[in-house]
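Troubleshooting entry. Yesterday's outputs looked truncated, so today I'm pasting the complete records for two proteins to confirm everything comes through intact. If either block looks cut off, that's the bug. Protein one:
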Amino acid sequence: MIPIRASHPGGLTRVEMVIVAGIAAVTMGLLLPALQKLRAGGRHDLCRDNLRQIAIGTLNYHDYYGRFAPGMDDQYVGALVPLLPFVGRDDLYNNFSFDPRFEFYWQNPYNRPPATGTDDIPRPPDLYGCEGEVDLFLCPDGPQPDETVTALMLTHYGIAGEDYRDHDGFGQLHLFTSSPGRLIMARSHYLAMAGDWRDPALRGIFRYNSRTRLADLLRGPENTILYAEYWGGYVSWHGQNGIPSGWSNGSRCVGFNYSAFGTCPNRTNSNCDYDHSFGLSWGVFGALHPGPAVKHPYSFNIAMADGSVRSLPGDIDYTLWRTLCGIGESGSPIRGEPEEAWAGTD
């Protein structure tokens, strides 16, 4: 019997074509996980590069002013806003309003639209002061702005008059923006380190009206955390103030967060939410980068005050974590993470 050949260039039979196609499919099946791993590695590298550039900009700010920016000022403007000119975003800094007539930055209708509980965004302005994403402030591995339902406006814990203003009307909470501000508030996956308010020596570089200098870092800048990744977590808002339930993360106007609640993902930390947030939390530093070993399946990135960037496991020892986040030696060791208070909106 004369074999029947298909009319393909090169004279391959149908059987040979099937074999070639099968080999190609197997090869692609083997290559795809490797390609995905390479792509994820590239995104992780970009996350680290972003954080490194933020750290360099912060050190340039320190060189210019002789100190770091405050974690938040009297209007509760966070540390990332004054950093904008030092990361090449003078336009967004100049668009932000520090009008002293308003008690808090988000009450200024030029920075955020008034809370109505609806998604109708009034215009003008064409661009609100807290609006406009900064690529450096976003990690491509993390939840992107259009994948989140609201953003953090204020981190408020500690002692009145020391960690926040006296009689400001807020309890101990993470305060997120209601509608329609939730749709315009620019996000950030990197927040400045405020440390642990419960021990003066463990307070971080960025605090309320702080004026921290490199010379104040008793363990040295290479051993003190400047920024850490914060991806947020799921919150069941159920439509409260116009916010649907969903992922809630940081904004570039809030500027800082506390170390006191520990890190995530961490099975020993009750603040981490494994049911809804893949082990992260709306109030805790942490991310979901692939870790270096099975023992530490996830890691998050930190920038030290010398400008270097490192990765830490989500289950880093709590005492070590708090030590790295504070500017001085601890005089009164504290055991166990505090429970998060609550997530509120305004």
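Protein two, checking that the full record survives here as well:
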Amino acid sequence: MQVRKKIAIVATVPVVLHVFMREHIKRLSDDFDITLICPGERADVEALLGEHVHFLPFAIERKISLVQDLRSLWTLWRILVKNGYDCVLSLMPKSGLIAMLAGLLSRTGCRVHIFTGQVWATRQGVGRRFLMGLDQLLASAATHLLTDSFSQRDFLVSSGIVRASKIQVLGKGSISGVDTERFKPDFETRTELRAQMGIAPSALVYLFLGRVNRAKGILDLAAAFVQLVEECPQAHLLIVGPDDDALDEELVALLGSRRSQFHRVGFTSTPECYMAMSDVFCMPSYREGFGSAVIEAAAVGLPAMVSRIYGLTDAVEENVTGIFHEAGDVQGIQQAFARLYQDKTLREGLGLAAMGRARQDFSKDEVVGEMQKFIASIV
């Protein structure tokens, strides 16, 4: 009987495994024994476990803490040595650095990290150089590197983080693709949610869905929307997601005079419902690795209105599935708002093209299948 090879998947928080790795874990467990290594308790990952999927709790801090990080490195090295994994796979910066170094020290044969965006991309000075150095160390310790978009790959190579020959993109990009059975138009949900939120069927809803923080450009979006509503009375702005940077008070201050057209929802486990009730998806970020929510919204039929930055230039095809503005350009965002408000034919054409592209190029089966073939080829 052939012995199943073993893969350790390391993450800084359990939610990342649910959001980005669920389907990969399920598919890889057909051929390999999988161990999920992350902070928390078994209950946090229970839905991911199975006959060939196990869990090991592992303490790791998201922020830099030299003493704690060395302890984490020592602990993970011991886990890898004791269990003799054939591959260690990581995503997120801190877990990636710890996992790749522990894998190198334990002589784990395959060490794979997935880059999903760089915190230092918007930093300056010593802080930027320090964080870049950590990514260079991570890259040198890995045997294989993946990234979720071609523009991010080019950025990492041109920034001197990694050699072009060592990093690749699976398929046409994204981490886990789109579940098109989940993300699809839903007229019944659209009608019900609009009624609950007091939004007319004829209104035009602009949706932001993601972590609410400064790097996502959320304050720029709000400032531009205030300018828009003067000339577009049927426009509504819906912001969905957890408040990472305590920005809700600033948002209320910016949009207070337009409260009837501004709607705020916190964390949701059903993003597809808010996409179904909306008309345009907004992502005014300063940095993104790819923009998974953009293609999920596209699969629902929403055109995109996004920043012209690496990652998003892969998720959106300009003037085909969405339109671009410059990051931080409030006037440019306002013009994009108005253009999509006034031109229904353009809006609907972009939405149909977005749906077709999401389903053809970024389906869950396509992306997960590419990962399965990649891992099988190296382990």
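Both blocks look complete. Sanity check on protein two: Residues 6-177+364-378 form a domain with the Rossmann fold fold (CATH 3.40.50.2000).
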